[in-house]
Amino acid sequence: MVLNILIAFFSLIGLLTLHEFGHFVLAKRCGVKVEEFGIGYPPKLFGKKFGETVYSLNLLPFGAFVRIHGEEGGIEDYRSFIGKPMRQRVLIILGGVISFWIIAAILLSITFSLGIPTPVSDEINQGIVAPQVQIAQVAEDSPAEVAGLQPLDIIKEIKYQDSVLRSDKVNEITNFINEHRGKEITLTIQRWEEIIEVSLVPRLSPPAGEGATGVALVRTALRSFPWYESPWRGITATGQITVAALQGLAGVFSQVLKGEGLPAGASLMGPLGIFDFLRHAWQLGLSYFLYFTALISILLAIFNLLPIPALDGGKLLFLTIEAVRRKPVPQKVEQNITAFFFLLLITFMIFVTIKFDIPRIF
């Protein structure tokens, strides 16, 4: 338990630290003075200056930071951020986001070599390890939702009276459910490290597209590839996941803007939820842990690119306005807008933690 918590904690801190390291590297490459690179947030516990940069370890373990000379404006010498050409400033800001994608590609490359969790058909039995049937989606107000089934649950066993089915094939489980419509069946479910039993009654006449229990099932397994194929597959998968995530995000925004709320089965996740997700992922094995860490890294990259002041995307927005106006946004105005949106983000994260993370975890 303690080991799982420590691994999840240092993995999340590591992602955020490497994000800031991306800003650090690009700033150095562009000739900008980096005043401090810190892990954690002040108050400072320890600091040592090497060259012109102070490297510090700080008390509050909520990420990392890089203090770049002149980033806040007011200083326009040749070593300052504001004193550099627009293209170099854009690169420095993008450095952190690029780091997230590089991390994801490396982790996915390792995962492809070890064995990556992937959907497989019932007919494939060669070249895969640990096949299993998982719940991919749960329909709203369905017997499955009422019984408490959740996405990622693994179906270990399904039974009705003396009839018992243990199978890693979607078709076999679906057929068993359909044969027992209107009767109470019991599913043995693995949810992370827990094994639980859930009882429900498959519907005789379910809504179109939902099935008798209201779940979408997928067969997954670990599938490995030769080491020389893994790097390219890792890069390709990073791109594919990014595109899929952007499409999903666009769909969510579209539905929310129409006043329809979040899509069925969708849920928000805050820092506490991400931490708990990583903690559980470690219990599934190294391949699953690396895969989910890569997924979180990609989602963090996309989130950071949103044009919201206080995020990297917000900084790019201010640079875009500067390029159009041919002069920067007044320093005081930019700082006030950034501070306002920073408070909004903190408030939103607290709301998500209380509304979604805590009920889900506890």
UniProtKB/TrEMBL annotation:
| InterPro entries, A to Z | PDZ, PDZ_sf, Pept_M50_Zn, Peptidase_M50
Name of the protein in question? PDZ domain-containing protein
Instruction: Cite the GO molecular-function annotations of the record.
Output: metalloendopeptidase activity
* Family indicated by similarity: Belongs to the peptidase M50B family.
**Signal sequence extent:** none
Q: Which UniProt keywords are present, listed alphabetically? A: Hydrolase, Membrane, Metalloprotease, Protease, Transmembrane, Transmembrane helix, Zinc
Locations listed in the record: Membrane
Tell me where in this chain the PDZ domain is found.
108-193
Chain segments annotated as coiled-coil in the UniProt record = none
Record's GO cellular component, any one?
membrane
GO biological processes:
proteolysis
Cofactor(s) needed by this chain: Zn(2+)
Q: What is its main location?
A: membrane
Q: Gene3D superfamilies, from UniProt? A: 2.30.42.10
Give a yes or no for keyword Flavoprotein in this entry: no
Q: Where are the transmembrane segments?
A: 90-116, 288-308, 337-356
**Among its keywords, does the record have Transmembrane?**
yes
